[in-house]
Amino acid sequence: MIEDKNTPRTPLSELGEFGLISHLTKNFKIKQKTTTLGIGDDAAVLGFENKKCVLTTDLLIEGVHFDLSYVPLKHLGYKSVVVNLSDVYAMNATATQITVSIAVSNRFPLEALEELYAGIETAAKIYNIDVVGGDTTSSTTGLLISITAVGHANEEELVYRSGAKENDLLVVTGDLGAAYMGLQVLEREKQVYEVNPNSQPDLDQYTYLIERQLKPEARKDISGLLKALEVKPTSMIDISDGLSSEVIHLCTQSKVGVNLYEEKIPLDPTVISACEEFKLNSTTVALNGGEDYELLFTIKQEDYPKIKANPSLTVIGHITDQKSGIGLVTRANEKIEMKAQGWNPIQDKND
Ligand SMILES: [Mg+2]
Question: What is the average pLDDT across 7-14?
């Protein structure tokens, strides 16, 4: 953590646990009509009438999932919320509430936690969700953040990983690989900084990549877009660990195979140029990079005309029978079997 000697450092012990929670959440406003009661009692009270409730949770640990030497705490707070909401959107549900729990060591002053919560508050505002609970406790080592997200959907709107059928089209939102290349740039700059702390890096050309790594956005818009296009996905998953591992999850749970076309994978031009610079294969980066938080879904072939002109959506393959396997069709028209190799096996979590 880069520390500025001019900023005040209030020890957490000055507030105590209860003072700390109410201090950190004092600006949080309740906006959702499904929140009957937020922070302040033994438990929050939520009401979804006749809808299905969607619930997902994520645990982020310093040194495993994030490195505070280049991740600003405000961005970390924002990203912690976004990665959870992405899982709610991957069910084709609306996200409405989160709880936030942190364990923190004494080396963090109150001001650092205020930064973290400022990022959480910004995400809550942008994604229109309520923070309805949480806990803080002390940690003997680093920082640990656990967020649980709640959402809802009508039962017939929910989309599972298991619904893909033979001949369906495989579709991905946005573009892939940028978050991983952003991480490569940040790791390289960290090493340069360690050798020469006075170096002034010019990172302008990497803005998109770094933003995708430090401040990713979840695809809140896709559910509404598909509804407007009158398309209901047959299966869906979000891309947290890399395209190949998510494709494998979808196919395994749907008991189908796939032909995914290398030449169709959407890449931003800055990803292609950064891959050249770092001597990495852009297809490998898109397949295994992870942290893009785009959505991967299947649609019925007859729905293709409804989505084909949309710049946010790219058809990258089609579903086959299970015996045909989970295949990547290369630019040379060879079919190779895809294997999951997330960029960090420790992160290969079940979400
Ligand atoms: Mg997920």
Answer: 81
pLDDT per position as a tens digit, 247-256? 999 999 999 9
Structure tokens at 61: 């640990």
Q: Report the separation in Å between the CA atom of 238 and the middle of ligand 1, taken as the mean of its atom positions.
A: 5
Is 94 in a helix, a strand, or coil? strand
Residue 293 CA to ligand 1 center (angstroms) comes to 8
Percent of the chain exceeding pLDDT 90 equals: 75
* Mean pLDDT value across residues 220-245: 96
User: Does one domain contain both 175 and 243?
Assistant: yes
Q: pTM for this one? A: 0.92
List residues, by chain if needed, whose CB lies under 5 Å from ion ligand 1. Answer: 87, 238, 240, 351
CB of 58 closer than 8 Å to CB of 80 = yes
Cα 263 to averaged position of ligand 1 atoms, centre (Å): 25
**331 CB-near residues (< 8 Å, 6+ apart):** 262, 263
> Closest Cα partner for 168 from 275, 70, 47, 255?
255
- Domain of residue 98: give its range: 12-157
Q: What spacing in Å lies between the alpha carbon of 307 and ligand 1's midpoint?
A: 23
Residue 239 falls inside a structural domain: yes
Element containing residue 171 per DSSP (H, E): strand 169-173
